[in-house]
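Q: My labmate handed me this sequence with no annotations at all. I'd like to see what the chain might look like in three dimensions before we decide whether it's worth expressing. Could you predict it?
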Amino acid sequence: MRNRVLVFAGVLALASIVVAQRAAQPTVATGSTAPNFSLKNSNGATVSLADFKGKYVVLEWTNNKCPFVVKHYATGNMQNLQGWVTGQGAVWLTICSSAEGKEGYVTAAEANDLMKKDGYKASHYLLDAAGTVGKAYGAQRTPHMFIIDPSGKLIYQGALDDNPSPDPETAKTAKNYVRQALTEAMAGKPVSEPTTRAYGCSVKYP
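A: Here is what I predict for the chain of 206 residues:
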């Protein structure tokens, strides 16, 4: 009887590993067409992914209360990257999928205040309190990054960089996956690391 219990426990453990592996798979496969979407920005205008056809687009999932997000904004790391990306003629869309009443939720006015206070250089701050777009992309963390090429194909998804620590000092020496991927793609080269594991706080969905 004891052996049967042990075997059964082993089967359950194996099943849980399989489930976890399946859950870790991206919702949208890298290399596939990125889902189109429309969201209101912090100024009340409707912004659609389709508006930027023919351009590279970076999506950044954010939560201004998350220590990992704070790390990148307090050091200027995120703003510098935003400025570099938009300086290349690409589009940067910061998306907040925190539900109302949950950590990181902001109104349009609060988003504008935040952008001004912290010197955001994003093209738009988009509000996704219903979590529709975040779930469509499988955004799990803040920050969680995605890059879409001019043809509408998802060419990168995952972490901002290779140092999953909230320590601000680590932003100085970390390898930035977004900069690397965009540099390679714009040079006509394949993205060498198209998928990485995102780190940070969980997205606070409804």
